[in-house]
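Following up on my earlier thread - several people asked me to post the actual chain instead of describing it. Fair enough. Here it is, all 626 residues.
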Amino acid sequence: MSLTPRLKIILHDLVAIALAWMLALVARFNFGLPPEQHLKAGLYALPVAVALQAVLAWRYGLYRGVWRFASLQDLWNIIRAAVLGTVSIGLTLFLINRLVNIPRSVFVLYPMFLVALLGGPRLAYRLWKDHSLNLRSVTAATRVLVIGGGEGGEGVVRDMLRDGTYLPIGIVDDDPRLARARIHGVPVLGGIDDLADIVRRRDTDIIIIAIPSASGAQMRRIVERCEATGKPFRTLPELADLVTGRVGMNALREVKIDDLLGRDSVVLDWQRLQAAIAGKVVLVSGGGGSIGSELCRQVARLGAARLVVFEQSEHNLYLIERELREKHPQADLAFILGDVGDRVSVEHALALHRPDLVLHAAAYKHLPLLQGQAREAVRNNVFGTLTMAEAAERHGCEAFVLISTDKAVRPSSVMGATKRLAELVCETRKRRGTRFITVRFGNVLGSAGSVVPLFQQQIAKGGPVTVTHPEARRYFMTIAEASQLILQAASAGSGGEIFVLDMGQPVNITYLAEQMIRLSGREPGADIKIVFTGLRPGEKLNEELFLEDERLTRTGHDKLLLASHVEVEPRRLQACLDALARAVEAFDEPTITRLLAEAVPELAGAGGLATDAAKVIAFNRSSRDP
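Reply from S.P.:
Thanks for posting it. Predicted structure:
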């Protein structure tokens, strides 16, 4: 039977009390063996000393403190308990036997030994755990309730006690092991569900959420409880700041929508990522975009031999160049202004830099805009991918990673159809020397074209916030998480795979809009209205991440899934691409739209793209050549 942490502390303190009493007796006789009558009297008195001192230790909360966060308040409680215990023991023994054969000097030595034996291990444990002693105890005007009794909460409490501007009045945590505990002398008052009652009883000015590792679901629950109190609340940055030590009042920020939509922390195989990237030449197409720029940051951080950023937008290229050169002055960086649809530009870039890995993030992504621009969507998303893939093969790239989207699954839009066709382009090349890998995922928070920046702009203007449909749901993940998992897939893929990122549960867009309004300090419906505009052309009510005939299997990483799929016929795909190329050259939008519907069988009947025209090119992944 294993002992609980609190029971271990109690046993430690009982032993320390007994040892302190006997040490005081032995010290009286110069640490030699006391005479028999004094030794017997001391041993007879021992149970009385232990019992009385244990009661006072309990009374002063010595068993509620967490050793990991031992503070001056804990030391003060030990001193008070030791002094009062000495007086109580002396009085009790006087009433029992008039202190016969008990040296009076024992009552001077005993509290000193006791304070050392009770306080020393606590402070030593604290030093061992975080090499930091913060023993000050201060008061302040602003009364703060801290949510979270872990390292984040301890750091915030410690910072408040050091600074003196804020007064931590209590801690809220659901962990039953912290019930009635004290951290730096600040009591744990209850769980998250008790928050409203605690705020009311404790006259709270502000609430601080100090759980950097909280998942999106946990944060949504906490924020809902905080909103119900009507008090202002702030939170700590992400978990990485605990490692760098940036935990404290100066690191606080307002709760962002990313906090509510974020998912469980992703644990990456950094050793494998380092091996896949370090010392390699990596080219990122679309390197100035939302995903592309984050991929560049991650690649530079992992120590690539050279990072080549290929980007069509001059402004985006300028921004990412300035950022990377500032943060990684020693890195070998190259910045190329070019179009993935320009065969000469792509060929020149790959011939010049000979990349080992190509991360193809360049794509047109704005769904409603591309719905009436089929030619440009095909030219960039399909033929840009083909051009980059062929160049990667010619120049001996080890791996080519296509960044795809959930909109490629049973696409109902031009954009989705072009991305699905780009996936097929990569699927047919799996037997080549270059490993072709596809990574498919949903919406990215804060990316260009994301609904989050749009809602922010609408809220800033006072509304209304426009939502397409009350039941519309989308998958969301952070840019950093998506980029890291893309690199994980690049290191894990052997060629021909479609990796699907585990996006967690889809989020209702109406809920997203309501939470963003609340986080701005206003009330949905009362202060800012939500207006439903109807689904846009080509838009789905709910997105999907894999096709019906794609069976998902687990990989070595719990957030990375593998979609098994039926193989395509390369020659039929090539015939389709040839026909599309001719239509693109002729700027024949109707033919391009029809060919897209024929090229992607899952598209039939979706969004009005498919037509009843006779199929010029029979293209079905399960059919055979004639």
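The chain has three domains: 5-130, 142-255, 270-444+476-501+548-566. That should answer part of your original question.
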